[in-house]
Amino acid sequence: MLTLHTKLTADDHRAAVAQLVLPYDQREKCRLRAVLSNGEDVAVFTVRGTVLRDGERMTGPDGQVVQIVAAREPTYLVQCADAHTLLRCAFHLGNRHTQAQVGDGFLRIRKDVVLKEMLEGLQATVTEESAPFEPEAGAYGGGHGHHDGHGQHLLAPVPLRQKIHRPGDAA
């Protein structure tokens, strides 16, 4: 069984031997057994809190490279007549701690009929679709931008009082 545990950087141009097609809920697991596009079994081990994003590539002890692909899954595409209404929808989704993908003029959420009714009540057009789901990582984890000194790429700096210190961390 192939083992994957390391994300490759963008400057590593080795070709992928297969694809690992997973829905979002599987791409956020830190331990996973799955099947590659070529039929081979694979074990994925990542640091807790890691999300595998569409297009990323991983490798393991044997050096083989696998490309991550976001699977199509049941979602709602949320569109509005104007930016203000879309912003209101995003606010109300965030207020319910709902994961949402933010795009140019749209939001995408997992299929949920209660949320659909709420969004339609806010005058949004909600269309059922099957699409890859890539929600925002959140303000304090896993995105682009600031580094925390431990190899993590945070979307925003974490206030010192919120940092978690583990026994093995340097002082």
Radius of gyration equals 18 Å
Helical/strand content category? alpha+beta
The strand count comes to: 13
Largest sheet properties: 4 strands, mixed
Low-confidence stretches: 142-165
Strand order of the largest sheet: 2-6-7-3
Classify the beta-strand content into a percent band: 25-35%
Helix content: 10-25%
- Overall geometry: elongated
Count of helical stretches: 3
Q: Give me the strand/helix succession.
A: EEEHEEEEEHEEHEEE
Mean pLDDT: 86
Distance between the termini: 39 Å
Topology:
Layout: E1 2-4, E2 6-7, E3 18-22, H1 24-27, E4 31-35, E5 41-45, E6 57-59, E7 65-70, E8 72-79, H2 83-95, E9 101-103, E10 106-110, H3 113-121, E11 125-132, E12 146-147, E13 153-154
Parallel strand pairs: 1-5, 3-7
Antiparallel strand pairs: 2-6, 4-5, 6-7, 8-10, 8-11, 9-10, 12-13
Describe this structure in words.
With 171 residues, the chain is an alpha+beta fold. Helix content is 15%, strand content 33%. It is built from 3 helices and 13 strands, in the order βββαβββββαββαβββ. The protein has helices at 24-27, 83-95, 113-121, and strands at residues 2-4, 6-7, 18-22, 31-35, 41-45, 57-59, 65-70, 72-79, 101-103, 106-110, 125-132, 146-147, 153-154. The strands form 4 sheets. A 4-stranded mixed β-sheet has the order 2-6-7-3. The chain is elongated, with a radius of gyration of 18 Å. Residues 142-165 have low confidence and may be disordered.
